[in-house]
Amino acid sequence: MSAATQRTARLVIAYDGSAFHGFAPNPDVSTVDGALTKALETITQTKVQLVAAGRTDTGVHARGQVVSVMLPSRTKIDGLAKKINSLCGPQIAVRDAQWVDASFHARFSAIWRHYRYTILNTPAPDPFSATTAWHVYQPLQIRPMQLASDAVMGERDFSAFCRKPSPDDADDKRQVTMVRFVMQAAWKRLDDHVTFDVRANAFCHQMVRSLVGTFVDIGLGRRPPSDMMALIRSGSREDASQLAPPHGLCLWEVGYPTTSE
User: How many whole angstroms separate alpha carbon 187 and alpha carbon 116?
Assistant: First the structure.
């Protein structure tokens, strides 16, 4: 199909990651990309290729994942979300679908990503949040966690909190630096839950989960808040705490310049 008969669409998607082996396409397992691609190809009767703002890992959720995709111009965009949701729901839900300028790219047009990590901080587990929150039964002290989070603000080298790029990973080979710019890092207690909201221009692999694992050790009194800056300065991955489990993590929102919307 020629470019003249296609247009760029932007989809805002939410999904329960516990049912998928991550977002990225993989013919051997169930992925979010695979399910969406199948639905779109069924609806449009043409081959499509999705571009996501972020490739979430196995078990990680999304509330505001953004996807760009070239679709036939004849596609009725107003009814597209409903059609996709009928095929992919309830695990995947398209919250918004609209035509955008041909220059829009879900990944490269993004200027920030916002993740939220949720912890259930109660003595007993909750079956209703078992797939969306990490259960930490010991009481967490939020003040030292927030004090430590101040250390990650601004431009930092997060080598101590990121999985090193694989030589076979084409995307990572283009981004050998682990330097990222963090715009927001905030801990809050909401009744039985503790949340961590972090916004940055980009994230390297496992960065948020590694940060949260270290923050939790600080909140439990196992490490002092000063360890966070010491880890950033050392760049030593081995000295950071364990990874927080994936099911507490959610890609909350992705930001774009207003001219691209």
Answer: 10
pLDDT at 173 > cutoff 60: no
Q: 117, 196 in Cβ contact below 8 A?
A: yes
Q: What pLDDT sits at residue 258?
A: 82
- What are 56-95's pLDDT values in tens digits? 999 999 999 999 999 999 999 999 999 999 999 999 999 9
3-108: which CATH architecture? Answer: 2-Layer Sandwich (3.30)
| Amino acid residing at 59 | G
- Chosen CATH of 112-255 out of 3.40.50.300, 3.30.70.660, 3.40.50.800, 3.30.420.40: 3.30.70.660
For residues 200 and 205, what is the distance between their CA atoms, to the nearest angstrom?
13
Radius of gyration of the chain (CA): 19
Q: Are 223 and 213 in contact (CB under 8 A)?
A: no
Nearest to 250 by CA among 205, 197, 204, 201: 197
Residue among 150, 244, 238 at smallest CA distance from 206: 244
Which segments of the chain does DSSP mark as H helices, in order?
A: 32-44, 80-88, 142-149, 170-173, 207-219, 227-234
Domain borders along the chain are 3-108, 112-255
- Of 234, 200, 199, 192, nearest in space to 214 by CA: 234
The three-state secondary structure class of 236 is coil
Mean pLDDT on 41-49: 97
Residues with catalytic function: 57
Query: Tell me, what amino acid is at 211?
Result: L
Which amino acid, one-letter code, is at 81?
A: A
Among 143, 124, 151, residue whose Cα is nearest residue 219: 143
The letter for the amino acid at 53 is A
